[in-house]
Amino acid sequence: MDVLLNEDEEMIRDTARHFFDAECDTDRIRAVEDGEERIDRELWQQLAELGWLGLALPAIQGGSEAPFAQLALLVEEAGRALAPVPLHPHSVASLALADAVERDEGGSLASSVLGDAAAGECLLTWAWSERLPGVGPDSVAMRAVPDGNGWRLNGCKRFVEAYDIADYCLVAVRTDAEGAPEDGMTLLLVEAGADGVSSVAQRALGGDYHSEVDFENVYVDGDALVGQVGSGWDLARPMLERAVVLNCAMIVGATRRAAERAFDYAKERVAFGHPIGSFQAIQHLCADMITWVDGAELLTREAAWHIEQGLDAALPVAAAKSFTNERCQMVLREANQIHGGYAQVKEFDQQLWYRRAAAWSMRLGTALEHRRTVAKALGFEEVR
Amino acid sequence: MDFTFSDENESFRAEVREFLDEHVSPEIVQEMRASAAGEGIGRLTRELIGKIGDRGWIGMSWPEEYGGRNADLIDQYIFEEELARARVPLNLGNFIEQAPAIMHAGTEAQKAYFLPRLVRGEVTFALGYTEPSGGADLASLKTRAVEDEDGFLINGQKVFTTRAEQSSHIYLMARTDPDVQKHKGISIFLVPMDTPGITVRPLWTLPGGRTNEVFFEDVRVPKDALLGQKNGGWYIGASALNLGRAGARRYCVYVSPFEDLLRYLREDEIGRELAADPVVQDKMAQLYCEARVAKLFTMRSLSMVRRGENPPYEISSEKVWGPEFQVRTTEAASQILGDYHQLWEGDTAPNGGSFPRQYVGAMVSTFGHGSTQVMRTAIARRGLRLPKE
Ligand SMILES: Cc1cc2nc3c(=O)[nH]c(=O)nc-3n(C[C@H](O)[C@H](O)[C@H](O)COP(=O)(O)OP(=O)(O)OC[C@H]3O[C@@H](n4cnc5c(N)ncnc54)[C@H](O)[C@@H]3O)c2cc1C
């Protein structure tokens, strides 16, 4: 038992912090937010060269085989830096593909795109949610029916990150509509520009774009199968757990930075003749902020560690997410309070952290949904 | 990062649990409760302390020369967690706070006298810190100890001196120099409670416990009652604290009302019916996450102390989060259990009436051993380096 970082973990954290501090200033963040490109290609290429796009992927796919917790630390740093690159969806999709390849399940497309994904030459995303947001198996209703060697897809996916810049999208569909939500699900790797696909990118609170993606009679070849037909939930469940933990890591990273900015501001800003940070009311806010973000960080690391160790992660993941969503919003709110009116002003940088971390806390399951998972794990009978 | 305990840790846990299952009878728990209510330390309790001492579990993280085993702090943490799980209300403060101070600052004669007797339960300390003038600003204390040729003459008053009526000694903080900066004129004395001039008056507390006022009227103690340097008393605690700060016993106190509530809602017939409400389940899930954070804060402090680090603010965070969580839990319990929550005794009282006792007693955590306000200021100043006013 030692909940602090070990040497390897400290190394990746420090290297990533150093890199993003040097490379990723707010001009770059704003350039992507205000520009047409929706990704900082140069930064993306740098991440690829550093081996970070394949950090936790197997070596045969060009990865570094780092333990999952190290990837979570990298993503936490990317969140802290508000790095304007789609590291989250790309990591989530590529780890799911690697999982299928390692299980030796599915078609050959997955393994052939993974090497390019690690090299930054192929950008991956994933499509899960449809009408009601959530991370349970009942989220997926979109149908795929067999057609020749492959499938025909019809339906609509929402809240797909980075779809307009992605090359491939891992799509969860239902190949069998009968039975329990856990059954009859299949994962398919669809080319983003495939015939019959249309998408509309919608701007979100965090300044990035989420697409609504329509599939109209889209043909997908059998080769695009990821995992096994009908048991997609076996891959999707761990994929969602990883997605949730990496999302928590981003929130924690960005929220800690937002809080630190507020602590610094409190030391400099003078009111009534004193730095506001000398007032007890402000000091006590700051004490709560650091305590809350530390709590979210510890829960997130505990969840990442469970995943890394191959332990049942359902409870720690849900605990981390429900706590992080709510407590980090509270930290952001207090950080804004300390900045007073300036937190509302676009040209002042604080809002960059506020909007993104808040937006991230609205994805991948609400606190209420994750607490239902916690309650179930505590042994309460499900009532819905 | 590693969030689990090793196989050796777990087998130690199993050993402790087996011992407690075998030796902690309902009669002993009853006796300990009565003792907290002011009835002195009972025979069964003394026997139990003796048996625990025989196993080497009291002061196990102490150096071998003082009768300890140099055990890993993790083992001490596990031992404390198991004591709490078995609901053994054994006061460990003596072994974890006062004994390390004696090891650190005591003379050879003091160590030889006190340490072995502490382990056998023959010496027990009441903690004589707080005075009527205030506990948060402890360094403003007024009780005077004036040195003369034979020793010291003590006059003054302490308050909230828990277990003063049943302890052999008091670990007394008194002012030895009133003319210097307040932290620099304080000394610690180890004073037998049967010294002439000491009177103890009970104060009864809301959950049904006893604490005391202690009056010192021309109390004469010899020179060797002084622990460490004269006027250096304030700093003894600060430097000897690490052995004591990184333990499980505080977080166990913070989370025990949650654990009791969870057990009641899962196991009791009425409890199960109440728990069929999704709103109740949501609240319990929320409290679970918060309890987990309390535990992780403790594990973090322990990890830091084991690495030889001196946590700048983390222990204060633990001391803000945990007690406030404890209070929130008792308030939530009151709104989940409703009418049942008021019942102090009787057959229909959940858990024999423990819930309202926890409700009125939980707040002791939020001001005792460093109030949450003082702790927040410490986090801001020491941890975040915010300026003084
Ligand atoms: C059941 C029980 C058992 C106890 N056992 C012991 C014992 O064995 N030995 C012992 O020595 N003491 C004991 N105590 C005393 C306890 O440690 C004190 O109650 C505590 O230190 C607070 O002191 P006080 O009650 O004098 O409150 P005060 O110090 O008067 O504080 C009152 C309020 O003012 C706030 N406050 C004080 N200073 C500041 C500041 N600078 N900024 C903001 N807010 C501030 C505090 O947070 C608190 O909310 C016990 C108390 C109880 C109730």
- The name of the CATH topology of the largest domain in chain A is Butyryl-CoA Dehydrogenase, subunit A, domain 3
**Inertia-based shape of chain A:** globular
Tally of DSSP β-strands of chain A: 10
CATH class of the largest domain in chain B: Mainly Alpha
Order of helices and strands of chain B: HHHHHHEEEEEEEEHHHHHHHHH
| Radius of gyration from the alpha-carbon trace of chain A, in angstroms | 21 Å
N-to-C SSE string of chain A, H for helix and E for strand: HHHHHHEEEEEEEEHEEHHHH
CATH homologous superfamily heading of the largest domain in chain A: Butyryl-CoA Dehydrogenase, subunit A, domain 3
Q: Give the amount of beta strand of chain B, in percent.
A: 5-15%
- The helix content of chain A, as a percent range, equals 40-55%
Q: What is the CA-based Rg of chain B, rounded?
A: 22 Å
Q: What would you call the structural class of chain A? A: alpha+beta
Q: How many strands appear in the DSSP assignment of chain B?
A: 8
The second-level CATH architecture of the largest domain in chain B is Up-down Bundle
Mean model confidence by pLDDT of chain A: 96
The end-to-end span of chain A amounts to 38 Å
pLDDT average of chain B, as an integer?
Answer: 91
